[in-house]
Design a protein that fits this description.
Oligomer: single chain
Structural class: alpha/beta
Distance between the termini: 67 Å
Order of helices and strands: EHHEEHEHHEHHHHHH
Helix content: 25-40%
Radius of gyration: 20 Å
């Protein structure tokens, strides 16, 4: 009797993060059943205690590297993974915790912990791609579950993921949201931010905060005068680009240009 074909092994790894992107996978509900039927979930502590040895066909990695232990562990994850996909702002661009990169970590630990001498941490929070080769980056804080399903389906079927590279502005137009920046309702990073969230914030009369990071070929320099007209000063312009993806090159350079 012929053996059933081997299912691809899927592993989900966590580094410094809030778990929100892993929860996006669990939030797929009915679709997750189809994914679970197509793959063998070899490692996913958020969902199961089962642990199967590698190598793994696809590894999803959430979180940034903030300790020496994690930096070493990541090398082993990469060695065991045929395809490594980073998911979320922490894994792709350092995340909110990368705000430490611009201050003195020792000062933080002294203020927060009764015994800071017990804390072992790196001075910076760095994306996964700063340490190992990454096959694909999926943006967001958290990621969009439909985009995640598309990426998984693409890699399981040997094709490139069909993820749009346009800005949040396109999503606003698609859902019929009048531009909050044009009508003066709020400052908005939508023109320079990668699509994927469905333009949720502008739909509720709030400007985009840039949690999906910079779109391909963004032009934040040209956007700056419009943000100033919307009420942002130099300090605010410097800080807004550091909120979710401070390590992302385009956003980092724009924050520095405004003195942050």
């Amino acid at each position: 009797m012929a053996k059933a074909p081997r299912k691809p092994k899927l592993a989900v790894w966590k580094f410094a993060s809030c778990d929100g992107c892993q929860l996006s996978l669990l939030d797929c509900e009915d679709e997750l059943l189809a994914v679970a039927g197509a793959v063998e979930i070899a490692y996913f502590p958020e969902a199961t205690r089962a642990v199967l040895k590698g190598p793994y066909d696809v590894s999803l990695v959430e979180g940034s590297v903030t300790t020496q232990h994690d930096a070493e562990r990541l090398l082993e994850v990469r060695r065991q993974s045929r395809r490594l996909i980073t998911i979320g702002a922490c894994a792709t661009a350092g995340g909110i915790q990368a705000l430490r990169n611009f201050k003195d970590v020792a000062e933080f630990t002294s203020a927060v912990y009764a015994h800071p001498e017990f804390i072992e941490t790196l001075a910076t929070s760095t994306p996964i791609g700063a340490h190992v080769e990454v096959d694909y980056e999926l943006r967001g804080c958290p990621i969009d579950k439909h985009q995640l399903l598309e990426v998984l389906t693409a890699y399981l079927n040997g094709r490139r993921p069909n993820i749009p590279a346009h800005s949040v502005c396109v999503e606003c137009k698609a859902r019929g949201t009048v531009c909050v920046l044009v009508r003066g309702a709020a400052a908005c990073l939508g023109p320079v931010t990668h699509a994927g969230c469905g333009a949720i914030c502008p739909a509720y009369n709030r400007g985009c905060y840039g949690c999906f990071g910079p779109k391909e070929t963004p032009n934040p320099v040209s956007l700056a005068p419009r943000l100033v007209d919307a009420g942002m000063d130099e300090r605010a312009l410097g800080r807004v680009y550091r909120t979710f993806t401070p390590v992302a090159d385009a956003f980092r350079k724009e924050s520095e240009r405004h003195g942050a």
